[in-house]
Amino acid sequence: MISRREFMQSLARLAPALGGTGLVLSEPALLRALLGALGGAAFAGSPADELIRQAPRARFWSAAAGGRVQCRLCARECLLADGQRGLCRSRANVGGEMRSLVYGRPVSVHVDPIEKKPFYHFLPGSRAYSIGTTGCPLRCKFCQNWQTSQASPEDYRVRFTPPGDVVESVRSRKVPVIAYTYNEPLVFTEYLLDIASSARLGGIRSAMVTCGYMGPAALAEMCRVLDAVKVDLKGTSESFYRDACGAELKPVLRTIRQIAKSRVHLEIVNLVVPTLNDSDRMIAGLCDWVMGELGPDIPLHFTRFRPDYQMPHLPPTPTATLERARSMAMSRGIRYAYVGNVPGHHGNNTFCPWCRKEIIVRTQFFVLESNVNNGRCGYCGKKIAGVFA
Ligand code: SF4
């Protein structure tokens, strides 16, 4: 059992790290939950033992020979012997059964503008109750959320929060959307499915921010309860995914195609990292793929990298690079291309592709003006792609 002093010291160590990435443990309900856990069982025994003991049975896996389990949740398809954890650190083989170690263990909860995710064509100007756990199946050297994505669940001692408590917290704050974000939400798929299906009954919508590495079966279930997905497409080269992310490109492209065929709203983000994926060839390849596979109406965001994680020596992405990427996208016919993480830039704004008027004006993550009425341009009346009500 840790003392209150030790716990508060660990929280104090945690807060600046989270604040520095925009992740904030300031949601009062979460803080209450954390503090409430001081007197509870969550701190008895070793944190990892306790977590495993309480972890619910996972989905999307099958039994394999010799007591092993084969995970099907993501493209890694980890084959785990008894006692082993997956690469995401979020699932473990416990006595021949796959358990989710992150179900009900949110470590980041905050109400953000939906533009921060970023979604620019899904309920612009809305608040999003944003929630994340720990864990990710990727190993991107330039990760902007590594404090949680590359952590293990026992690194953050939080008590179990059932899906119903999350939905009630959202409902009581009158927030219209839950965003599954911060770390990689696919690792808490079971939790996401339970929250989103319960939220949907109360008219609350769900949006996910993902690397797109999930398997097709899990994604199909997600698409039944999600309303919007933003996929990070980090490049369109296998060698880039392998060298910079320790992953493969193909599963990500498969995910994007699958979402595009569903009823779920889709947006794509490309984090442009100097020297890694900022060449004309890389950006042109990405624009060509988006235009060729998805057509002109999927919003495409080129966002600025800030030096972090294993890439502190790289500079932030120059604004000119993002402007060049946006121009390349638009010259190929992509109607909604954006510059991201550059507050006040005109590339944050939405322009009607038909009459060219500025129809949504943003600064930072906030909508200052909107001239979209019933999903149509307020000037020329033509339809604007997206979900506006
Ligand atoms: S979700 Fe985790 S355990 Fe499952 S295959 Fe992916 S990395 Fe492995």
Strand content bin: 15-25%
- Would you tell me which CATH topology of one domain applies? TIM Barrel
CATH homologous superfamily heading of one domain:
Aldolase class I
Q: Provide the gyration radius in Å.
A: 21 Å
SS-based class: alpha/beta
Shape annotation: globular
Question: Which features characterize this protein?
Answer:
389 residues, alpha/beta, TIM Barrel, 3-stranded antiparallel beta sheet, binds iron/sulfur cluster, 30% helix, disordered N terminus, single chain, 18 strands, 8-stranded mixed beta sheet
Q: What's this, in brief?
A:
The chain has 389 residues and is α/β, with parallel strands linked by helices. The chain is 30% helix and 20% strand. Helix 5 packs across helix 6.
Protein described:
It is a single chain. The chain has helices at residues 4-19, 28-36, 47-54, 146-149, 163-172, 189-201, 216-225, 238-245, 250-261, 280-294, 319-331, and strands at residues 61-63, 69-71, 79-80, 91-94, 97-100, 108-113, 127-132, 177-180, 205-210, 228-232, 265-272, 300-304, 337-340, 350-351, 358-363, 366-370, 372-373, 376-377. It is α/β, with parallel strands linked by helices and 389 residues long. The N and C termini lie far apart (49 Å). The protein has an 8-stranded mixed β-sheet with strand order 6-7-8-9-10-11-12-13. Strands 1-2-3 form a 3-stranded antiparallel β-sheet, with no helix packed on it. The protein has a 3-stranded antiparallel β-sheet with strand order 14-15-16, with no helix packed on it. Residues 1-44 have low confidence and may be disordered. Helix 5 crosses helix 6 (189-201), helix 6 runs parallel beside helix 7 (216-225) and helix 7 runs parallel beside helix 9. It has a domain at 108-377: TIM Barrel, CATH 3.20.20.70. It is built from 11 helices and 18 strands. Strand 15 (358-363) and strand 16 form a beta hairpin. The protein is globular, with a radius of gyration of 21 Å. The structure holds iron/sulfur cluster (SF4). Iron/sulfur cluster binds at residues 71, 73-74, 76-78, 86-88, 90-91, 137, 187. Residues 71, 73-74, 76-78, 86-88, 90-91, 137, 187 line the site of iron/sulfur cluster.
